[in-house]
C-alpha cells in the first residue's frame, strides 16, 4: 500500500486547562455509541490513561479554521491516522 492520501499533517497540541466537551459533540459521540449515557467515553483500543490525555489535546483544524478537541478530530471523517503527535488529515471540506 502506498502512503495515505492526505492534505494536512496537523500538529497535536496539549492544554493544561480542563477541557469540557460541547453538548453538540457529546450528542454526536453518544449517537455513534462512543459515549455512554453517563458521559463516559468508550473508544475502542484506547486505554483510560490515554483517554485522559486525549481529552487535553487539541488541534488547530485547517478545515474548520478553529481549535478542535482531539476527540472530535478523532471521529472526523477526515481523520486518517495519528502518527508521531500529528494527525494525518484528508482535508476535505466539512459541512
Ligand atoms: S481530521 Fe477533521 S477535525 Fe481533524 S484536522 Fe482534519 S478536518 Fe480538522
Quick recap:
The chain is α+β, with helices and mostly antiparallel strands. The protein has helices at residues 23-31, 48-54, 70-74, and strands spanning 8-14, 57-61, 66-69, 79-83, 86-89.
The number of distinct structural domains comes to: 1
What order do the helices and strands follow?
EHHEEHEE
Number of strands: 5
Overall structural class, as computed from helix and strand content, comes to alpha+beta
The kinds of small molecule bound in this structure are: iron/sulfur cluster
Name the strands of the widest sheet in spatial order.
Answer: 3-2-1-5-4
N→C terminal distance: 30 Å
* Major sheet summary line: 5 strands, antiparallel
Helix content: 10-25%
Radius of gyration: 13 Å
Beta-strand content estimate: 25-35%
Low-confidence stretches: none
What shape does the CA trace take? globular
Average pLDDT, to the nearest integer? 90
Number of helices: 3
Question: Would you mind describing this structure in some detail?
Answer:
This protein has 95 residues and is of the alpha+beta class. Helices cover 22% and strands 26% of the residues. The protein is globular. Bound molecules: iron/sulfur cluster. Iron/sulfur cluster is lined by residues 10, 59, 61, 63-64, 68, 73, 76, 78-79, 87, 89, 94.
What would the keywords be for this entry?
binds iron/sulfur cluster, single chain, 5-stranded antiparallel beta sheet, 3 helices, alpha+beta, 5 strands, 95 residues
